Amino acid sequence: MTDFHAARINMVENQVRCNAVTDTRLIDAMSQVPRELFVPQARRGIAYMDEDVRLDEGTAPGRYLMQPRAFAKLAQLAEVREGDHVLDVGAGTGYSSAILARLAKSVIALEEDQVLAEAAAATLVRLGASNVTVVTGALRDGHAPAAPYDVIFLSGATPAPPSTLFDQLKEGGRLVAVTGTGPAGHARIFIRAHGAVSNRIAFDARVHALPGFDMAESFVF
Asked: What are the helix (H) ranges across 15-154?
């Protein structure tokens, strides 16, 4: 039988801390949230490995839980504060939302796959994440009814910057995402200031793509 607690601590020590993740609140959250509950039963044995984990049983390209190292670095990049209102785009089964919920005041978990959304809602309730609201809808459209957001977190990659979501950021709000596909992926932070959005590349990352962003608008740098 897998010792999930030990696996979780090993994940934090060997995949997170050693990759320049120093946010103690984030580290504490990842040390406590049971990642294995957010992956299919048959894959729980690999829940803490340094790789993306398939969440669905559909055809390619499928949906994945982001590898711990990339997720932690992206979450740290967002600098989520205790009073922040967060939109988690592509929440999947809810792991990213469970972590963000421990850092922020409130989280909207947006998922377009009804089966994944239902799984997320059930697990988040089980864990007592009362500050998370799971909603369904096209990921590319965000969730305007609860906007604007202090932070928009994309739990997967997009081929181009997700400009369709920029209008849902507050003044001074941050959006973090991996743009590009395959080995050419870059983690970026986008910041809205004075009605304009600037960005910078923070690190290289290779994660699976989110659906629905294939026709994303081009972004003028």
From this structure: 24-32, 68-78, 95-101, 114-126
Alpha helices in the chain (DSSP H): 4-11, 24-32, 68-78, 95-101, 114-126
Q: How far apart are the first and last CA of the chain?
A: 51
* Length of the chain measured in residues: 221
Note whether residue 155 is domain-resident: yes
Establish if 217 belongs to a structural domain: no
User: Two tokens at 201?
Assistant: 């590349």
CATH of the domain at 154: 3.40.50.150
How many domains, the chain?
1
Whether the CB-CB separation of 201 and 219 falls below 8 Å is answered with no
pLDDT, position 26: 98
Q: Choose between 208 and 57: higher pLDDT.
A: 208
Query: Quick check: 8 and 48 in contact, CB under 8 A?
Result: yes
CA dist 35 and 94 (Å) reads 10
Q: Is the pTM of this model over 0.85?
A: yes
Burial class (CB in 10 A: 0-12, 13-18, 19+), 107: buried
For residue 20, is it within any domain? yes
Which of 187, 185, 183 has its CA nearest to residue 174? 187
Tell whether 219 is covered by a domain. no
Question: Domain span at residue 195?
Answer: 4-204
Percent with pLDDT over 90 in the chain: 88
In this predicted structure, which of 135-139, 145-149, 167-171, 211-215 has the lowest mean pLDDT?
211-215
pLDDT-derived band at 221 (thresholds 50, 70, 90) equals very low
